[in-house]
Amino acid sequence: MATPTVYADESSSTGENLLDPDQPVFCAAAVHLDDSLAQQTVEDVKAHLPSTHGEPKYTALSQTGTGRDALIAAFDTLVGESILAFIANKRFMVVTKMVDVLVEELAHETGFNLYDGDAALGLANLYHLSGPVLGDPGAYDRMLQTFVDAVRRRSRASAADLFAAISTYRATTKPPLTKWVELLECTRAQGDDIIRRIASGEMRDVLDPAIPCLAVVCGEMGKIVGEFALVHDESNAVARGSVFLQYLHWLPDPARPGLMMERLPVTSVAFSDSTAAPQLQIADWAAGAVRQWATSLVTTKRDPFAERLEPFVKRWTAGGIWPDPDFFTTGRKPIGRPEEPDEPAR
Length: 346
Known about the structure:
Helices cover 51% and strands 12% of the residues. The relative contact order is 0.19. It folds into two domains: 209 residues, 2-Layer Sandwich (Nucleotidyltransferase, domain 5), CATH 3.30.420; 109 residues, no CATH class. It starts with a strand and ends in a 16-residue tail after the last helix. InterPro entries: DUF3800. This is DUF3800 domain-containing protein.
């Protein structure tokens, strides 16, 4: 029996620039569709468009009434098909990365496993939800931006800049948040180390959400189709991370000391484009639709087209790196298809 092929694409990729105000959400999506169905779906969308329209990418389609109607019609035909997506609130992801590369490293050195239970996720939610409220929001924003600048490969900020920004922000905070920001101040050695390793090229793409989000999508898709060959739209970040997707099980699991990560069902990774694989065109549409809907949650601006997309999006979304305002009363929600728009969990 032939190995199934799954096609994937992403929407609103800004690499490690996670604080781009115009693109607050990242989405990775994957589809498993029959060749003939995929081709017919793309042709049906093209039939709604003027001959001068060009390639029917999501961004262009979503900007016209005709394109939006064509997308909805296409999604209606795909209701029973295997389509999955995973989203990242980029601003929240910055905070989760601060916890991961600073606090978790300090905790590990002291013998405390921050990934055992909900400690890491709880701390990230604490910083994200209370940071702009129990401290000066401008200083909080500058702390996040300095962190991003400091840990990107071509660093525009030093460790000294980062910890100066943390201290400046901490001076504006109110209890009980102050002591948790003081915890960040205690991670200078860890900050020096991670910035050195990034500058030397030992580590890359630390902030890029492409591989973490795609890994979750692949894991969830494997539950539906079993092992599969992955074909992704051209992407430098995914190309660099393709070995990770195939050999994740060679790495230790930080949440389970002594055990390895679970194997992803990806047998191979290749790259193509929508002219050769109509499934990649549909993956672009799915990623764009989920990203547009999720963006409306972040901006809280009414988006009539996002409202039309919601029934499809809620069926496809397999979770997300997403803040949970109810975390401290309900605890962590499992990764899974959300029942409500604000359900995605890290």
